[in-house]
Design a protein that fits this description.
Blueprint lengths: L10 E5 L2 E5 L2 H24 L6 H14 L3 E2 L11 E5 L2 E3 L14 E10 L2 E10 L5 H18 L8 H13 L6 E2 L5 E3 L6 E5 L16 E4 L2 E3 L5 E3 L6 E3 L5 E3 L2 E6 L2 E4 L7 H4 L9
Antiparallel strand pairs: 1-2, 3-6, 4-6, 5-14, 6-7, 8-12, 9-10, 9-11, 11-16, 12-15, 13-14, 16-17
């Protein structure tokens, strides 16, 4: 989905035949405002997660929050998608479709992926939570996935290369004794006046490759990790991606901007202060 903006055509930097959108400082500020709406919507949905609640009800919570704060859901209608959020449960990795008939049960893991448009600027974020108390295995899966996202965000610094982020995500996941699976093909992306832009951001790979990270570049970083085999299949609905072996998966995502002062996590309420602190990185706030 493409959304127009007023006043300026964003600068496009060419890399390997592709055009990457570079934003001004003011445009990054506009993306931050969009990001705060997405952050608030995710918090509202998380607060509504409980046994017996339907994924359709969660979708309504997100849509109401986004619209009541002046935004527009960017998932709704995207290539025909019918929800404001993606709700992916247990072995579903991403792109699960909200359904008023599908109800959560205690012990479920649910990935909630959400995005908003404000004044033509997109934001995108995701979190995985357990309904009720998680098992030790599920708690570890969620912790490993979220920490790997923050490891990648910590490398979103001017002067680096795109795959510095990819390598940091992979290195974080591989540092654990359990051999977690890293989902192939699916990954993060550029974001700005469209939800999905170049460059594609893999969650694995060698550091020091790809386009240079420069101020004004905005990226969505989103590791997807499985307890078992990371091989995937797409369901007949044409959207929902699941693990082939039925193992559980987790998914976390934040939108980050490269700034001269450091990473600015646009979809984190504190700008990334708490999440980046363990990596010795001070974000712009």
């Amino acid at each position: 989905m493409t959304t127009g903006i007023l006043g300026r055509i964003p600068l496009l930097a060419k890399w390997s035949g592709r055009m990457i959108q570079i934003k001004t400082a003011h445009e990054i500020e506009l993306m931050r405002a969009s990001g705060l709406i997405t952050a608030g919507a995710l918090e509202a949905v998380k607060a509504a997660v409980a046994p017996g609640v339907s994924t359709g009800e969660l979708d309504a919570v997100a849509e109401d929050y986004i619209r009541s704060h002046g935004g527009v859901p960017n998932f709704l209608g995207y290539h025909g998608f019918t929800g404001t959020i993606c709700t992916s449960i247990n072995d579903e990795i991403v792109h699960g479709i909200p359904d008023p008939e599908r109800r959560l049960a205690a012990g479920d893991n649910i990935s909630i992926d959400c995005g908003a448009i404000l004044d033509g600027w997109h934001s995108d974020s995701a979190v995985t939570v357990t309904v009720g108390e998680p098992s030790a295995e599920d708690a570890a899966l969620l912790d490993v996935t979220e920490r790997s996202m923050w490891a990648g965000l910590a490398r979103a610094v001017a002067g680096g290369r795109l795959t510095d982020i990819s390598h940091a995500v992979e290195e974080s996941i591989r540092s654990h004794s359990h051999q977690y699976g890293i989902v192939d093909h699916y990954g993060g992306h550029g974001i700005g006046t469209e939800m999905h832009q170049d460059p594609h951001v893999l969650n694995y790979g060698r550091a020091g490759r790809g386009p240079k990270l420069v101020p004004g570049l905005a990226l969505a970083i989103e590791p997807m990790v499985t307890i078992g085999d990371p091989s995937t299949a797409e369901l007949e609905d044409g959207w929902t991606v699941v693990t082939k072996d039925g193992s559980r998966a987790a998914h976390f995502e934040h939108t980050v901007a490269i700034t001269p002062e450091g990473p600015w996590v646009l979809t984190a309420e504190d700008g990334g202060v708490a999440g980046l602190a363990p990596f010795g990185v001070t974000p712009r706030t």
